[in-house]
Specification:
alpha/beta, 14 helices, Conserved hypothetical protein from pyrococcus furiosus pfu- 392566-001, ParB domain, 7 strands, five-stranded mixed sheet, disordered N terminus, 289 residues
Length: 289
């Protein structure tokens, strides 16, 4: 039953963690009561944000019913342990005033520790999409897994894994919006199809300002990719280049930074800043006024 919940990857890891030199196997892991203060936090914990309300609800549940699912730890030395999985349960138990907590004690090296922690949390915890993507990336880079192997470990197909990994290519501000649930995974997947980071950020701002649905964002991205829109962008870029050249010439002529704004109908404005009465008179003389 446990294996079906955790997936083949984690089940295999937990089995492998009981194998020592010369193929000698340790006894099946039993549940032990461990001092909560003897357990170090997991340095490989992929979750970085714990919901305070959910944590308090778990605390109240533990006060009433106790710990239903033991945590998993590895032994560091006599009387000292390191958490593999179950940080929310450990935190809630401390809040509930428990002195000890039921735990499975496993044998694992650092790489096994990392892989077990990541897979355990991906499959058991309600991680946000960015935390999942970062966990996938760590499994690939730090555990030397290929995407196909990763998919098997977490019981996901390669397309799903790829979609999560692509999120990490988005600008930080968009990743933060996804992490903070300001936008959904669907919004982010639509934005990814836009190549220009500035345009991606502009779309994010439009989503937040107008509360756009995923379908609306998909249509917006589709319109941006249309041939007609590409032609418009090309014309705007050409105009922008000419305006920049003119700005440089005017700035050099007047000895101050000139700002020019123009639309594709050749309408706009020129701003000439001055910093004192003397500076204004100097500019007026150049204008022969």
């Amino acid at each position: 039953m446990k294996k079906s919940v955790l997936g083949r990857g984690l089940g295999a890891l937990l089995s492998d963690s009981n194998v020592v030199e010369e193929n000698q196997t340790l006894p099946q892991a039993s549940i032990n009561e461990i001092d909560v203060n003897a357990i170090e936090v997991n340095p490989y914990q992929p979750r970085t944000d714990f919901d305070e309300e959910a944590l308090q609800e778990l605390t109240e549940s533990i006060k009433t019913q106790g710990i239903i699912q033991p945590i998993t730890v590895r032994k560091l030395e006599e009387g000292r342990y390191q958490l593999i999985s179950g940080e929310r349960r450990l935190q809630a138990s401390k809040r509930a005033g428990l002195k000890t907590i039921p735990a499975y004690i496993r044998t694992a090296n650092d790489q096994q520790m990392l892989e077990m922690a990541l897979i355990e949390n991906i499959q058991r915890e309600n991680l946000n999409p960015i935390e999942i993507a970062l966990s996938y990336q760590r499994l690939i880079t730090e555990c030397n897994l290929k995407q196909e192997e990763l998919g098997e470990r977490v019981s996901k197909n390669r397309v799903t894994v790829t979609n999560y990994l692509r999120l990490l290519k988005l600008p930080p501000i968009i990743q933060a919006a996804l992490r903070d649930k300001q936008i959904s995974m669907g919004h982010a997947r639509a934005i990814i199809n836009v190549e220009n980071p500035d345009t991606q950020i502009a779309i994010l701002k439009k989503i937040l300002a107008e509360d756009l649905s995923v379908r609306a964002v998909e249509n917006l991205v589709r319109d941006l990719a249309s041939p007609k829109n590409k032609q418009k962008k090309t014309a705007e870029n050409s105009l922008s280049y000419e305006i920049k050249q003119l700005q440089q010439k005017l700035s050099s002529h007047f000895g101050t930074k000139i700002a020019i704004k123009a639309n594709n109908k050749n309408q706009g404005e020129i701003k000439i800043p001055f910093h004192s009465t003397e500076d204004l008179n100097r500019i007026l003389e150049l204008l022969q006024l």
